[in-house]
Amino acid sequence: MERLGPARAASATGRPTPRIRLGGIGIDPVTGAAAVARVLDAIDAGRGGQIVTPNVDIVAAARRSRELRTIIDASDLVTADGAPLVWASRVAGTPLPERVAGSDLVWSLSAAASERGLRIALLGGTPDGAARPTERAARILEARFPGLKVVGAWCPPMGFDRDESQWRALVERVQAAAPDLIYVGLGFPKQEHVCVRLRAAVPRAWLLGCGASIDFIAGYRRRAPKWMQRTGTEWLFRMCSEPRRLARRYLRDDLPEALRLLAEAAKERRRRP
């Protein structure tokens, strides 16, 4: 759980921030406020970027895939979405300051965007018949933050990223909208692959892989109460809300991975002089 070399994203002072390695990937030791400031500084300088917010499930997937590890480590900002990553960093003696979830960043970045006059777009969400959660989420964000410029809200069909004509059409819409920030809620790792491809088309934009955040904003899924978010038990709320989809993943895959992270952290702590 050693510290990595300089992260790709620089601090507000311009100095590179070293990353902390957890479960084979590097995490930027930033607060939510520092993460937003870093993005705003880069936008002001005309630089785009990609944000990945790993949780335990993502760490487990990255252990199995060199490609996913490469995508995460090449991202410009990597924040700890999962509370067990924060706990493990503290056990190891290299503490991350706090959990910085993608579901929180969509709100804090939107607030900052409304104050700065930045343009945002939403891509993803779970289609529900004729309903479009992405469009509903856009309206809710605009109502919450007066003056926010939402320039795109797209809920593409399944397989759009494998269909060349659909992909080209999406890229053209994104380029025409010219957003400064794009929230991509397609689930890991699909959203990260989409972000990597979109960066070439809109190199000055920042792309955030935000999982179920668009559905949360739109009210199509409920997020855990604040006290569960603070205590690291949000996973339990989500599992109870969607047991058929999530119980096996959380109990069979994520729980052992969380214990593994903590065991690795304790071993790392013992190795230190």
Structural account:
The protein has 273 residues and is an alpha/beta fold. The chain has one domain. It contains 12 helices and 9 strands. The protein has helices spanning 32-44, 56-64, 66-74, 83-92, 102-116, 133-144, 164-177, 190-201, 213-218, 226-231, 234-241, 243-271; strands spanning 3-10, 16-22, 25-27, 49-52, 77-78, 119-124, 149-154, 181-185, 206-209. The strands form 2 sheets. It has a 6-stranded parallel β-sheet, with helices on both faces. Strands 1-2-3 form a 3-stranded antiparallel β-sheet, with helices on both faces. Helix 2 crosses helix 12 and helix 4 (83-92) runs parallel beside helix 12 (243-271). The longest helix has 29 residues, at 243-271. The radius of gyration is 18 Å and the shape is globular. The relative contact order is 0.15. Mean pLDDT is 90; it is low at 1-14.
Structure summary:
The chain has 273 residues and is an alpha/beta fold. The protein has helices at residues 32-44, 56-64, 66-74, 83-92, 102-116, 133-144, 164-177, 190-201, 213-218, 226-231, 234-241, 243-271, and strands spanning 3-10, 16-22, 25-27, 49-52, 77-78, 119-124, 149-154, 181-185, 206-209. Helix content is 52%, strand content 16%.
